Amino acid sequence: MSELAGQILDNLNAAILCLDHKLRIRLINPSAQDLLAISDTRGIDCPLSEYLLNGQEIESVLFDALQTGQPYTQRKAQLTLLNGNRITVDYTVSPMSEGEWPMLTMEIQPIDRLLRIDRDEAVRIHQETTQQMIRGLAHEIKNPLGGIRGAAQLLADELGGKDLDDYTNIIIEETDRLRNLVDRLLGSNTLPNLQETNIHEILERICALVEAESPGLTITRDYDPSIPNLTADKEQLHQGILNIVRNAMQALTDNLVEPEITLVTRTERQFTIGTVRHRLVVRIDVIDNGPGIPEHLREQLFYPMISGRPNGTGLGLSVAHSIISQHHGLIEFESQPGCTVFSLIIPLEQPDE
Ligand SMILES: Nc1ncnc2c1ncn2[C@@H]1O[C@H](COP(=O)(O)OP(=O)(O)OP(=O)(O)O)[C@@H](O)[C@H]1O
Ligand SMILES: [Mg+2]
Fold it and tell me: Residue 352 domain-assigned?
């Protein structure tokens, strides 16, 4: 290979590999090394499948391309790396002949971030539509509630002291419960009160609450103390993160031997959310070792009234999602039994409205 071609390959953002007829790596550029977490060049000469936990799946596709001599593109393929990370990629293989054996060039395009942006955008649009519908409905329910409660109160006064109090109390309590629910459905109607906010202060307040509520629970902190202050609405952020930590706590309550929540804070540079690229974002991971999120809830998890708990209202995540969206951030999750991670990503500075 000429020196120039080598330099171009080294500087390409695209991940490129060259595989021989036994699918051994003959050439790998730095982007591909990064993507596949192959940290040294011992990768050269080893079959590609040795660097993937699900190597066999991809191997059969590659052998097919070798045998037929036809290029092949696979979209949204899942690769599981040796470090356990799963990445979603599009890849294209093109057979070529070099000497006596055919070879393959393979071009891999990571698409996780794109998928995430896509999904988040879809959630946001759906969320806005449902939110409007729910708000309309909630107002209609809220208006007569005041009247019903007032009338029940008057009735109670009229009947004062008689056994019938039980009935009026039920009316009053149930209207209060409904009003509470409706208030949560309507969400906050004030604009965020942006101020300098220390994320660790908020997390510590939440820890104190959760530790008081659930004494057997271990909370492990893995904070990056150098994170600068955020510009955010303290109370809302507190509410949003608390909803997520409380979900983790509730997932852990049933007969788990060593229930543990881990809170991780980090910064990330040059992070794109929606269409905006942010210079610096804060990432807060809430990790629990509970049973994981039920498969059938995953797609709709952030929509209002979706709950897997018998007494859940299904509003916690929907509220957290709108708070984080108001802060131009995003929430994502990954879940399997024994490890559920909710990640909140919030830009350090709020863009000017
Ligand atoms: N860390 C977690 N582990 C397992 N399941 C979870 C976790 N977080 C959320 N879930 C599932 O997602 C559902 C929706 O959560 P969400 O907070 O929106 O509503 P909820 O907790 O049911 O009710 P609410 O928060 O309004 O009291 C939960 O009912 C639960 O089934
Ligand atoms: Mg909840």
Answer: no
